[in-house]
Please model this.
Amino acid sequence: MAVSETVAATPPAATPTPPAPRRRRRGRNAAYWLYLLPGAALFLLVIGAPLVGTLYLSLTKWSGIGDPRWVGLDNYQQLLHDDVFWASFRNTVWMLVAMVVVPTVLGLLLAAVLFDVIGRRFKPRTAAALRAAFYLPQVLPVVVAGIVWGWILRPDGAFNSLLDAVGLGALRHDWLGDPGTALPAVMAVMIWVQIGYPVVVFMAALQRVDPELYEAAEVDGANWLHRFRAITLPQIRPETFVVALTCTIAALKVFGPIFALTRGGPDNATNVPSYFAYYTFFKKLQVGYGSAISTVLTLIIVVVAGVFIWVQASSERRDRGF
Amino acid sequence: MAVMLTPSTAPVTPARPVRDRHHRGVSRWMVLALVTLGALVMLVPFAFMLLNAFKSPGDYSSGGPLSWPTEFYTKGLRTYWTTVNFPLKLWNSALIAGSVAVLGVVVSLLNAYALGIGRVRGRLWIVGLFLLANMLPQEALIYPLYYVAKQVGLYNTQLSVIIIFTVIQSAFGTYLLASVLGTFPRSLLEAAALDGAGKWTVLWRVVFPNLRPTLAVLLIFFFIWTWNEFLIPLVMLIDNQTQTIPVALASLQGDRLMDAPTTNAGALISLVPAILFFLIFQRTLARGITAGAEK
Model:
């Protein structure tokens, strides 16, 4: 995503339209449609049509065999009274905390410290090595991460042994099996998975900031915290924005780690909409109901993305003084 | 996302003369200690994995997860390798991720050529649509895809997954390349047109060579993202012949045959390819990103 962020930060330049005769230009551009053809056809086949299909199925009752039976908005009505559905969205809010809020805030601090303190007062190599350690979890497939953590947090797993070893054996616990601790445990794993992404993006962003700004502030006697608030934060706002958006979307869609860690359990304590939809589709064979869950999730994601982009656009406009 | 760890292009400014006294003393060492501690905590799960991947089941049950292995036991690794037929899974993952990477880049390039250079009408909306498609939850597509794949005989084939991810990844690629090509120097295009080059020639002789570094980055992104994908392969690929590495590992997880050492061995070898690509591609990436940024 490093690239997307560069792109998002630089809106395409408004190239002046060449003063070519109008008719000729339109004729030339029309030929470009041919290049869009394969992509558009594939897009309609794999994304457009299935999306419409899901929307249609959400208005039916269907087990996947025979013909779907039209039920109108029944599925959505049922969703409103479904405790599991509400629980899954409550858990999504916690996922937003674990995958967006904590990693972004911690990532900002870590990146600033790594770049500003460790990169400068020690060797840049030290900063690069530490950054790699934070980034490593991002490299491994999330399902692999989920399986390893699932074993670590088992009653007989490594974490409890570690507690024993340091004399905290009284805290031994079935971390993922107890509805009271399952969600916090999953959140901790997600922070571990996610933290490297903001650290790396923010460190790259900090290289973009003019060092003279910091030097001037230092001469003026600003301490580290002052500089962080007055220079670092505003300067890397575009990257912060991209990180927040991509992490938010990822948190709303999270599936693999939940599947590998808890399958939504125990007792729906860690269920999330995407796992709930998967389970409803393929385990309960309630295709209509699963489609309704997916449709609601899709709408939420579209709205959230829309709000994000709108806020960014208007804050950019404000900056330019319009 | 797996790919931004550029090698030490890091900090630009050399350490400046000691102007600020508050950083000279113990405080900077305390900061270093704290951050290092954090980094070590991040690495602990990997250490657990390594420690237990080469331990015999007897050793594990007597000594527990933290004990040092009494022997270098590789049978867990070998059991996993043969029970899941790991080489086949590796091939499946590589085939799917590799095909998606190449096809996805080609489709992205064609789309972006029409949108960024051709500036066809309504292109902002089209680009927005592609971007949105990339954000959709896969649950919103999966059932119709699964159903149709079953009808047309593509269910449980690698081809189905390749087609689906080619489209999903190229949705992002189109968005990215269309913005990059929006700033493509018009003079180059006009010069080529004056020489009588057609659109097809311009695409491959002018646009493609200029874009190669960015395309390389996209190729790697697509490869790694597809390699790590889970939901769609989980639904589409149901038997040993077709499954990818993450799906194979996850479907063995419920199996009570998998003892802790085997689980760790399995996780460890599933992690190796990801780290390998990462190291191999790191250089390309660093170059690609810089080259892309210079435009």
About this structure: Residues 249 and 304 of chain A are 8 Å apart (CA to CA). Chain A touches chain B through 116 residues (CB under 8 Å). The first strand of chain A starts at residue 60 and ends at 61. The domain at 76-319 of chain A is CATH 1.10.3720.10 (MetI-like fold).
